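Hello again, I could really use a second opinion on something today. I've dropped the whole record in just underneath, so have a look.
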Amino acid sequence: MLSAHRLFPFLRWRRLLSRQSVRADVVAAVTGAVLMLPQGVAFASIAGLPPQYGLYAGMVPAIVAALFGSSWHLVSGPTTAASIVLFSVLSVHAEPGSAHYVQLALTLTLMVGVIQLALGLIRLGALVDFISHSVLVGFTAGAAVLIAATQLKHFLGVAVPNEAHAYETLFEIATHAAQANPFALGVGGATVGAGIWARRFLPRVPYMLVALAAGCAVAAAMEAGVTAPGLIYMSTVPATLPPFSPPLLTFDAFQSLAPAALALTLFALTEAVSIARALALRSGQHLDGNQEFIGQGLSNIAGSFFSGYVATGSFNRSALNYEVGARTPLAALLAGVLLMGLVPLVGPLVGYLPTASMAGILFLVAWGLVDTYHARKILRASRPESAVMIATFFAAILVDLEFAILLGVLLSLFLYLFDATRPRIYSRVPDPRLAARNFVTDPGLPECPQLKIVRVDGSLFFGALHHVRRMFRVFESRQPGQKHLLLIASGINRLDVSGAEFLAHEASTRRALGGGLYLYRAKDPVLDLLRRGGYLEAIGEDSLFRFKGAAISNIVTRLDPAVCEGCRRRIFLECGYLRGGEFVEDKQADTHAGSASERAPHAQVARALGLCTRFTGATRDSHASAARHRRPHLQRRRAHARRAVARRCRERSANDAERRTPAHRKSERQRTN
């Protein structure tokens, strides 16, 4: 049963309200409402809607999202990316700015809200994680190019028709470049220059307001000094509250807008949740992603009936809301309410804004969308991620924005699956230059002619088995005598039934050839699946090792003594003591192994292993044919002896490590004195 806090999330932050927090929220709300005035008009222009719809999208949706969302600082409303996606989708169905175009925008907003609400209710908040950072960087850069291309005609004062794609628009503008209006170019240039100056020298003042004021001043000066400069102005905003405007509820509209609604939903949720997570990390808040989905969905559903188009989290207004000092979602709620009071006052003033000045503002917005810093990092760091980013960028420019998002997601998933099906496989050897002879990957070091050591980093599931099996066969073709395989399994994070069957089959095959498969440092989930499925019966419990010393000491006793006797490589420390099926001291092997203090423990281990060999009655001939002729009771005795040897090795290693500690040496000196 749903609790009251689940149905009404605003009850959770009601206890955070105090006199100080309310004062801080009011200051943040006033700042956000003032910033929303130029942004709302600009975003409506990008979306191809009348200017009042950008302001309406910052009223009811912002209030509903604040009430039913999870973030304390997220401010919802129109954004650049959502506006350009909406324009790209709807411009092929209706003339931008027309009544039918507005109805389709409201219908698309309703569809997006319903999908967002459904995803939140079924708790699919992790769905937005499928849109990678590379996709977002490429998409926003492509959206910036589209914004600049669609506003270039207003910046130059050239009358060209609206085209479906950016390259078509740029071609039309190039053919009419001679008709550019120098007065419009001057107004747009003054707006851009003033905006750049304000962002650099007046960081606390909204640069859009300064840029618009400068553009309007230059336009007024031109109107006063020049006869008919040919400037075009924005249409006025009605001085009313958002009117009730039902969407177009027809099957044809739903069918034609369904793909765009899905793509826009994914992007809008990614934008909102990413911003909310970033702010929650800075403020220390615990964010509920599913609740944020519900809040965004309800805000778009309500906005579609009150003249608002697709709203999502705004990075500019959310960051400003946090920096100014907002404490609770009350700041975003009050900002929507204050905007309702400001629109009737400033709505008629929008008619004094030149379209060239608004185009200059949108140029600044487009430039801010290009994330050159992260784009350079992606290009330097990863070729596959760079390919995803570049493909998304060109798809946004040459095809459609909604297709660019889906293409980026599919490419990211394909690259992930391709990487997952090819786990990293390394050939490892003990390094004689190190005292502990740690395993390293060095082609210049010799390998044991009977034992292959391999490390696998990645999941061992059905999709990766072909690659792993092929690599194992490559190793066998290079060293046919390496019938024993020690698999370093610490990098295997996941194992499925197909992977378990592969390991069991590999163990049975190698045992039939006189070798074996051994697992070293396998993780508990991997071992649990092997035990539950009965696959350890084929691998053998005595083939599982937690420590390197125990693994090598045990496996060496299973190697062919005839091969070991003629081998002079001495790959392992234990190799120096094996002669004729017996473990004996060898001066040359001791010299190769290290100092006397390092050799002593291994000499004891060697003697224990020699006793193990004599105890089981293994001779040179019987050891060579052990896989075919070993009797069951001898197998059990040998397994018991090996486990005893491994246990003694671990105990001696622990005792030696304790003796090397300063505290132990100090206590020994005190006892001697």
In short: Residues 579-631 have pLDDT under 50 and may be disordered. Residues 666 and 672 are 10 Å apart (CA to CA).
